[in-house]
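Recap from last week: sequence in, structure out.
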Amino acid sequence: MLRVGLTVGIACGKSLVAEMFRDRGVPVVDDDVAARDAVAPGSEGLAAVVAEFGQGVLRPDGSLDRPALGRTVFADDGLRRRLMEITHPRIGALIAQRLGAAEASGAALVVYESALLVENGAADAWRPLVVVRADRELQIARMARRNGLSREEAEARIRAQTSVEDKAALADFVIDNSGSRRQAAARFERVYEALCARIAG
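Predicted structure tokens:
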């Protein structure tokens, strides 16, 4: 089985490319989904987050208020590290379970989708590495629109991650998503064909 890493600069379109892999029948293990599941209502993870950051990070229905938590931790590196200490072991356990299931399925290719794959030092463990990039101004605009943030807030979140150009420099394949969906799809197609050739060869 070929184990492919998929990462991205923030708001560059990782989910779009992951969807293209899924459309080809490729199992995709998404650490964003695992992160949500690790702090789902009633979970030990959510209880630990509330114990650390207070009831203000909960919505009225008892679920995690991610924007409220984000405003707290992205402004303070110490708090962000503390959140990672709480959540990462739980997320890691879920990811391991899901990767095991994907590999047991007999698929020739599995994709691990992670925005922080480079930041977590795992780039070399997931080769070939596919990086999705977009122009910085487009990143800022997408982030602000998607999350209801000011330009300053969007820029702060982008700065909290390794730059997309630094990630692209580590990649085996780069898919630029600064243009239309059709253009991104054409670039994906070339990458997918190259990955299939590796499997066949």
